[in-house]
Amino acid sequence: MSSEPSDALVFFGATGDLAYKQIFPSLLGLIRDEGLNVPIIGVAKAGWNLDKLKERAKDSIEHHGGGGAPEVLDKLLALLRYVDGDYNDPATFAQLRKELGGAQRPLHYLAVPPSLFGVVAEGLAKEGATTNCRLVIEKPFGHNRPTAKELNAVLTKFFPSDRIYLIDHYLGKEPVQNIFYTRFANSTFEPIWNRDHVRSIQITMAEDFGVQDRGKFYDETGAIRDVVQNHMLQVLAQLTMDPPTGEEYEAVRDQKVALLKAMRPLDAAHVVRGQYRGYQQVPGVKPGSTVETFVALKCHIESWRWAGVPIYIRAGKHLPVTATEVIVNFKRPPRETFGELVSPSSGHVRIRLSPDVTIGLGIRVKLPGERMIGRDTELILTAQTPADRPPYERLLGDAMEGVGELFGRMDIVDAQWRIVDPILDNVTPVYPYEPGTWGPDEAEELIGADGPWRAPKLAPVAK
Question: pTM of the entire structure?
């Protein structure tokens, strides 16, 4: 495989919402920060021309940022090309080949529905546009484990597996990478990061809003497919994987897949699904839908490091706050020296991923006075604003350079589907919950004595 940078960037779905909100600002950032200077070709079936695409790009930058001097935007507009056509029509790909000009190593980014992944890959192959190319696939990669395998079989007919980049924008987020860095850059954590000292782990991804205008998409997806199978399992892998060995880019992904393969497949007895009241009135949602907007689950990693440590994950919409947070609860000392009644969750490490980036250490300190009694407190080790490089800018830049460390790999995706496949669809009841609450009461019953769930507490916003 050539390690040379891509010499053109093609993005299918150029008129779509993802391109508008994420891709144009990220392309602007790549021009500003990394000097990107290659043809950028948008492809879509919208009846547009190049002038309309440029207007869309300017509007995107105005409303969704990107930053930089006016000449940076001028550079982006100058690099833009456009091909309008049906993905099933060979003429579309012939026109694309013409727009590519002398480019020999383009990056093809598919921001299109999964049903079109194979169609586009085949169209590129028939036009002879797969040699020395890279293919970036947007999630979801399959609807379950069998369909993911089928999709991989289709794509690898036309592209070698090492040229296929499975994008999960969560991996491009600075706070998620911070988990990985903090663990392995500090010897403090390694001696206690195992079953001997960790009592339980909690991961919460909460959103205080509903599905908004994504009713049709969400009703075909649900919380498990939307965020657990990908984002939450990736966070868990970063948190619990063994350190990578060697300096090859694949070393990190090798350890991730080893960790995910060690996870026990989920079973219905350890899953609670919920649906907020009012979801079924959202446009696009089917009457009587049983799709979950909330899920809480208990999982286990069958490895020497983590054997016997329960891991709890919950994610949902219309919860009290919007925040993503990891809590690693440590075991209490073998006996309470001072005879106190101490909460089992007294000692912990808290890693906040959003909306701010915070690492806190929970400890117990003595209260002033003669009595040997204390209180729980938390030392804030670091607190940062979330101002960081946008994930799509980072990921598209890496893909252009052929760096795959922050992308999924088919064996990783397959391991993730293996974990969640047994609980997809309606294998468990869906319980109603009120918007603004922490989901159905059954979620508290799930965590039981390992609880309570720790709710992210956000600092008040100054007005």
Answer: 0.90
